[in-house]
Each structure stands twice: as C-alpha cells, then as structure tokens.
Amino acid sequence: MASAETAAEHERILREIESTDTNCIGPTLRSVYDGQEHGLFMDKLEGRIRNHDREIEKMCNHHFQGFVDSITELLKVRGEAQKLKCQVTETNQKLQNDGKELLTSMDELRQCRLQQRNIATTIDKLTHCLPVLEMYSKLQEQMRAKRYYPALRTLEQLEESCLPQAGSYRFCSIMSENIPHLRTHIRDVSMSDLKDFLESIRKHSDKIGETAMKQAQVQIARDNAVTSQQRSAGGRRIRKEACSGTEVDRTGSNPFSEKDSGILHVEDEEEDEIPGAQDLVDFSPVYRCLHIYTVLGARDTFENYYRKQRRKQARLVLQPHSNMHETLEGYRRYFNQIVGFFVVEDHVLHTTQGLVNRAYVEELWELALSKTIAALRTHSSYCTDPDLILDLKNLIVLFADTLQGYGFPVNQLFDMLLEMRDQYGEVLLKKWNQSFRQILDQDNYSPIPVASPEDYQRIAGQFPFQDPELDKMPFPKKLPFSEFVPKVYSQLKEFIYACLKYSEDLHLSSTEIDDMIRKSTNLLLTRTLSHCLQYAIKKKNVGLAELVQIIINTTHLEQSCHYLEEFISNITNVPPDTINATKLYGTSTFKDARHAAEEEIYTNLNQKIDQFLQLADYDWTAAQGGGQASDYLSDLIAFLCSTFAVFTHLPGNAIEHATLPGKVAQTACMSACKHLSTSLLQLLLEADVRQVSMGALQQFNVDVKECERFARAGPVPGFQGDTLLLAFIDLRQLLDLFTQWDWSTYLADYGRPTCKYLRVNPHTALALLEKISRSMKDTSRKNNMFAQFRKNERDKQKLIDTVVKQLRNLIATNQA
C-alpha cells in the first residue's frame, strides 16, 4: 500500500518536472530528497528519460527522408541564386551609373524647393512677427516718454491680438513673460505720480485757496457795485442776501468754476486774470492713474486709496495751529488751505467720472464744517481785540461766500458768526469801558470855553447842542457842559458804527441789524457807561463842583438820546417808530447817573458836617453859656456858605437847561440843614452825656440860633419865605421849651394841632429833662454837700420831678 502511494507521488513529481519551468523545479526536487525513496525516484526518472529518447528517435526516423530532399533542392537553388545575384549586381551598376546625374538634379531641385518653402514660411512668419515687434517698439517708446496710459493700451493690444497671431517664438514668450512686469511697472509709476500729485496739491492748497478767495472777493465786489447802482435810483437799503450773485445749484455749475473743468476763472478780460487751480496744479497724474487703474481692473482700489489719502490730508488741513488766534494771517492761512482742499475736490468731482462723488464730498464738508466751527469757537474766544474779531468776521464771510460759490452749504458758519457777535459785543464793551474811563479821568469838569465861531461849530459837529440864548451871547463864551460830553457822544456813535460793521454781509435784514445795534448800544449805556459814570462819581477826592458838572453833563447827554435814535435809524434805514423796535435806555442811564451824583453831593455834604461836628467840645456842666457861637459851628457855617456859593455861581444859570443846579443846590442845602439839625439833636441826647446844665443848654441855643441865622440868610436862592428854617424847627421848639420853662403850655396843649411845641417829642423832652435834673442835683451836692437844698432849688427840683412824672404818664398814655 505504501509502495503504491510512493509510486503515485513519484509520478506526480515527474509530471510536474515535465510541465514546470526549470526556475521553479527546486522545491519539487527538495521534496524528493526530503523523503526516503530518492533511489527509487532516480530509477523512475531514468526510465522516463529512456522513454522520451525512444519517442524522439521514432520522430526523427519519420521525417529524415523529407529533410534529405529539401537539402538537395536547396543546393540546386544556390546555383541559380548566384547567377541572379550577378545579374542584379550588373543591372544595379548600370542603373547607378545612369541615375547619378538624375540624382544630382533631383537633389538640386529638392534644395531649391526647400529654400523656396523656407522663404515662404519665413515671409509668413515675419508678416505675423513684424506687428509684434513694431508694437513692442512702440511700447518701449511710450514707456520712455512716460506715456503710460497709451502704453497700457498698446500692451493690451499686443497681448490680445499680436502675440497670439505671431506664434510660439522665444521672443514672444519673453514678451509674454514681461507683460505682467510691464503692467506692474506702469501701475507703480502711475501710483508714484499720484503720490507726487497728492503732495503737490497739499503744498498748493494754500495758494489755490488764496486764489479762489480773491476771485470770490472780486465777484462780490462786482455784485455789490451792481447792487449799489440799482439801489442808487431807489434809495439806500441794506442788501438782504450778501451772496445773491453767488447762489448756485449744487448739481450744476457755479460762477467760480466750470462744470467741465472745475477751475476758477475771472470773466472780466480787462482785469488781470487770476490763475485757476489747473494753473497751479497739474491734474494729469490723477486722470492718468485713474485711467490706468480702470484698464487694469483695479479702479475700486484706486478710488479707495485716493479717498483715504484725501481724508488724511483733510484732517491735517483742518488741524489749526496753536497760535492761530494771535494774528489774522494765521486764520487766513487756515481758511486758504481749507478752500484750496475743497476747490481741488470740486475740480476732481467735475472732471472725473466717479473718482469722487457728491456724497463723498459732502461727507468731507460736514467733517470740515464741524471741525472748522469748533476751532473758530475755541481760538476766537482768546481774542480781545475788536478790530481783529471784525477782520476775522470779514474773513469768515469771504470764506463762506467762496465755498458757497462751489455749492457747499455754509449756513452753520453764518450761525456761528451770529454767536461771535455776542463775543464781539463784549470785547467792544471792554474797549469802550477803557475809553470812557480815560475820558472821565482826563476831563477837567469845567465848562468848555469857546473863543470863536469855528470852535463852536467844531463842538456842535461833535455833539448836537442847540441853545438860542447861548447863540446870542458874544464870543468868547462858555458852553454849560465839559469836554467829556462831546467825547462820550462821539464814542457812542463810534460804537454804533463798530456794531454796524460787524452786521454787514451776515444775510440779516435791516430790522435785524437795527435790533442788534440797539441792543448792543443799550448794553453800552446801561452797563459800561453807567458803571464808568458811577466810578467817576464814587471815586475819592471828587469835589462838589465836579459832581455838579457831572449832573449838567448827564442832563445834556440825556437830551441827546433822541439824536442817537435818529442816527441809528438813518444808518439802518429802519424808522424809529417801527413796531417792536427796541428803544434806547440812555435816558434812564443818564437819569440814574444824575441821581447818583446828587446823592453823592448830599452824602459828601453830610460827611463834611459830621467831620465838623466831631470837633464839637461842649462843656455840658458849664454854669452859664457864652455869648458867641462855638468855633466849630462858625467854621461849619463858613464852609456851607462857600460851598453853596459854588452852586450859586455855576455858569449858565440864566440858561433854560441850567436850572437844574439851582434845584440841586436847594435840595443839598435843605438836606445839609436837616442833617445838621438831626446831628445837633443827637449830640444833645447822646447817651454818653449824662448831665446837661442850663448854661450848656444856653450855649447850645446860641449855636442853634447861628444855624437859624444861616438858614434865614438864604445861602441858596429859590426858597420861599422861611422854608429853610423848618429844618431846625424841632431843635428850636425843644430849646424854647427848656429855656422858657413853659411846661404848663406843653403839657396842656400836647396833641393839639395848634400846640406851640408841636414838634417836641415827649421822649426827647423826658431824656433832656432827666439830664438837666442830674446836673442840678450834682451841682447842689457840690455846693452844699451836708446842708439841705435851698428853698428855690428844692422847689425847682420838685417841679422837675413833677414834670418828669407827667411826661412819663403822657408817654404811657400814648403807648396805651
């Protein structure tokens, strides 16, 4: 059984050897040697080899005769083939000899045809390449000439038309590779030109703005001239709109710029032509760069870059210098730069298609307007010179009119000018305050002497003064007022002119201008001039004569107020009786000043009286009084007489409007007498005076009589009868009561209208009586300290005690 399996395995291996590639026979043989029957396998292999050899031998024996026949036929053919070879060789030799000339001719013909074809091909290729070369040469020439936009167009034509037709040549490849670099170079160069352009317009903005504002000024001057000619026939009036000739449609052209160029120009050929923006700045770089970027498909990039750079420049332009407020030139440079910036933007807006649009320009203008107004508010607040503020206002008006001519809204600028008007008014008030102070300090407070008619006319030209009585007097003569009256009046007119100058060209109506001037003038009168007059009245060392002269001066200034009303109406062309028209407060101002001067006169007199009274040195315990008035009172009376003599001899008493000093003198005299009477009574009733002897009371009575003598003498004319004596009536009745010792009459008639001592107050009588009682008791005690009172003294003391009780009862009854 095992041998059968071995034989089968050997048979399989042998078949595998026969059918398998020799390269893969190794594993098969290894399987034989791995077993134990390799000897048997070798025998099997030898047997198989012998079988194959027998089969090969049978095959050879079967085909051998055919092989022999084939060899025999082949030998026969070899001889024939040798003959044929010789014939062919001979024929070939003959053919070669015969065809050598033909081959030479054919070769020559082939070369000619090849050359002809090459020439035709070359001509065809050159026909396609020459335009490329010519175009490239043109491109190089345009690049050298810096004509970048035509170069870009040439480059586009070269790339799209010429190079595809030329074919694939090396130079074409080089050109194709160089085209992006050329485009980049053109773009970079055009951008560099644009940067130079932006730098140029930044440098020239000041000059462009100055030129534009000059043109606007010329245009406004022409409009004003035309308006004046039209107004000369119909009378003088204030122009309602300062820029009526410069109103423009924002979407259209303007009188200062053409829509197709956006450049300033002057229409009057007879005048020197003012250069426009295109004469100061070359705008071709921005146009060229715009076209180049449009062709390159990067227009949006260019627009964004341009707008971004211009916004940066706008912020720089709108940043004012820190010392701009010091001079008008600083403001002028600031405005010139802003105007120049927007003139350029207006030019670019009208000469390019969409590089900047109206919305962008308006956005920039809103930014500029807000920053400009803020800067002006800040810097103008530092200004204390009204002339500089006025010049600044005129410059702002010109600035606004110029930009309004380019279609920019400027209403906010005019609103700001109206705000600045209040500051201008305050600065004017400060300046005029100094002027008024200087006039009042330098005035001599004396009537103006007039030596000739020329002097009179000169003063009458400064101040509206009319006096028929004074006109009749011969020269030389004196005007009733001092120098400060015409000077103050002239200053008031100058102030009104200053207010009018500011109101010009602000697009205000005549009524608004009139109202503004009147309100400002009222502030000048009620605040500035009033304070200055009060200062002049209240300052130290001012004399009574000066105060009286101030009263006269303010009276004449008060009477001139209606002339100021007419003056304002004439320059504003607004009738003074217009409804809601503001009235001047000059009358009340000068009245208040006059009243203050009068009060100061009364106060000064009273202070002088108090100073004399401080010199009073009564001996309240004197046994008997002297026969003459006290020294201090004599000096006081002498002072009052000399003082009221100044009032009496004031110039112009005979003139109609000079009656006031007499009234002031009467009031002052009455006030002085009343104050003197009251002060003497207070002196008598002073708490420090514990005792008053009858002798002291007699001396006091002598002094009062001296006062009455002064009042009776009439120190100031104009009092009727003994009116001035009424100032001392209280003292007189009190002293009569004590000197006459008429208590029975006083007590019996007290409270009746016909009472002899009607002005004697029970409290006053009681206080003085108690002082006399103390004096009598003290005197008796000194004369006879240990003895009883003498009978008459005891009786008098009893009487005093009785009167004291009755007075107390009377006081108690009245209080109940």
TrEMBL record:
Domain Exocyst complex component EXOC6/Sec15 N-terminal: 44-213
Highest taxon above the source species: Eukaryota
A GO BP entry: intracellular protein transport
Domain Exocyst complex subunit EXOC6/Sec15 C-terminal: 412-771
Swiss-Prot/TrEMBL keywords: Exocytosis, Transport
InterPro entries referenced in this protein's UniProt entry, alphabetically: EXOC6/Sec15, EXOC6/Sec15_C, EXOC6/Sec15_C_dom1, EXOC6_Sec15_N, EXOC6PINT-1/Sec15/Tip20_C_dom2
Pfam families according to UniProt: EXOC6_Sec15_N, Sec15_C
Region: Disordered, residue numbers: 223-261
GO cellular component, one term: plasma membrane
Keyword hit for Oxidoreductase: no
Record-linked PANTHER family: EXOCYST COMPLEX COMPONENT 6B, SEC15
Assigned protein family: Belongs to the SEC15 family.
Function: Component of the exocyst complex involved in the docking of exocytic vesicles with fusion sites on the plasma membrane.
Protein name from the UniProt record: Exocyst complex component
UniProt source species: Onychostoma macrolepis
